Amino acid sequence: MKSQSRYLHKESFFIILIFVIANYGRAFITKLTEFSIENIDELWQRLFYVYSWEIGIVLIVCSIWFGKKLTNELGLNKGFLKGFGIAFLCTLPMVIGYFLIGNFIPQNFTFSKLLSSSVLPAFSEELLFRAFLFGLLFRRLEWGFIPAAFASAFIFGFGHLWQGNNFLDTLGVMVVTSMGGLWFAWLFAEWNYNLWLVIFLHLLMNWYWGIFEITNNNALGGIDSNIFRFITIIVSIIWTIRIAKKRNHFEVNKKRLF
C-alpha cells in the first residue's frame, strides 16, 4: 500500500499535469488559433515563441513550488563547468570520428544554427523531461527508476517521430531516442543530479551530428556514424560506473528500480 501511494500521490498527478501543459499546451493553443510560426519573420521571435512556453512554465511553477530551492530541485546549481567538461570528453569520439568520415558544413557552424538546433532544444528538453518529469518523480516522490525513467523516455521518443522518413525509420527513431532518454535519466541521477551534464551531452551530440555531413541521410544515421555515437555512450557509462564505485554508492540500485 505504501509503494502504491508513491504513484497515486497528488503531487505525482500535479507534476504530470504541468508536464502535459508545458509539453503540449503551446501546440494545442496554436491549433485552436490556427496561428502559424511561419507568420513570424525574425528568428529570435520564432525561438522565443517556441521555447518560452515550456521553459517558462517549468521555471514559474518550480519557482512558486520550491522558492529558493528551485535550482537545487532542478539540478541547475551543480557544476556548470564540470558538466561541460565531462560531456566534452565523452563526445570527443563523435567529433573526431565525424571529422574523419563526414564533411564539415560551414553554414551550419553559425551561432543562430547552434542556438536553434542544439542549445535551446537541449536545454528545454532536459529541463522538462529529465529535471522536471523524471527528476521530481524519481528524486522527490521516490518513484522507481523504471517507471519514472520510462515515462519520460517514451514521451521523449514519441516527440521525435517526425524525424522518420518511413515506418521502419520512424520506429527506429522512437526506439533510439527513447533509449537515449533512459540513458540521460540514468546519467542525471548518477552524477548527483547535475542537469548541466546531460544538457551539454545532448547539445554537443546534436551539434556534431548537424555540422558534419554524415554519409547516410537517414535520421538514424548509418553504421559508420553510429559507431562513434555508440563509443560516446560506452565511455560515459564506464566513467559513470567507475565514479559510482569510487564513492561506493549507486543512486539507481535494486531497491530503487520499482
Q: How is this fold's topology laid out?
A:
Blueprint: H1 2-8, H2 10-33, H3 43-66, H4 70-74, H5 80-90, H6 92-101, E1 103-104, H7 111-140, H8 145-158, H9 167-190, H10 195-211, E2 212-213, H11 223-246
Helix pairs in contact: 2-3, 2-7, 3-7, 5-10, 6-11, 7-8, 7-9, 7-10, 8-9, 9-10
Describe it for me?
α6 runs antiparallel to α11 (223-246), α7 runs antiparallel to α8 and α7 (111-140) packs antiparallel against α10 (195-211). The model has no long low-confidence stretch (mean pLDDT 85). The longest helix is centred in the middle third of the chain and has 30 residues, at 111-140. The chain has a two-stranded antiparallel ribbon with strand order 1-2. The chain is globular, with a radius of gyration of 19 Å. It has 258 residues and is an all-alpha fold. Helix content is 74%, strand content 2%.
How far apart the termini lie comes to 14 Å
**What percent strand?**
under 5%
Order of helices and strands: HHHHHHEHHHHEH
Please identify the structural class as seen in this structure.
Answer: mainly alpha
Q: Give a quick account of the main beta sheet: strands, pairing sense, barrel closure.
A: 2 strands, antiparallel
With strands numbered from the N-terminus, the spatial order across the biggest sheet is 1-2
Catalogue the unreliable spans: none
